[in-house]
Amino acid sequence: MQAYILRRVLAMIPTVLGVIIITFVLFNVAGGDPAVMKLGKQANPKLLEEYDIQRGYDKPLLFGLWGRTRSYTHSDFSKGAGPWSGVEGATLQMSPTPCLVLSNETCCAIPLALNPQSGRVYRWVIQYSGGPASLEIRADGMKITGAVLEETRRWRTSRVVWAAPATATKIECSLSVGKSPLRIRSLLLQRRARHALDSQFVFYLRQVLRCDFGVSTETNQRVSQMILSGILPSLALTVPMFVIGVFLEIILALLCAFFRDTFIDRLFVIFSVALMSVNYLVWIVLGQYVLGYQVRLFPVWGFESWRYLILPCIIGVASGLGAGIRFYRAIMLDEMYRDYVRTAKAKGVSRSGVLFKHVLKNAMIPILTSVIMAIPFLYTGSLLLESFFGIPGLGNLAINAINNSDVDVVRAVVLVGAFLYVIANLVTDIAYTLVDPRIRLS
Question: Does pTM surpass 0.85?
Answer without folding.
Answer: no
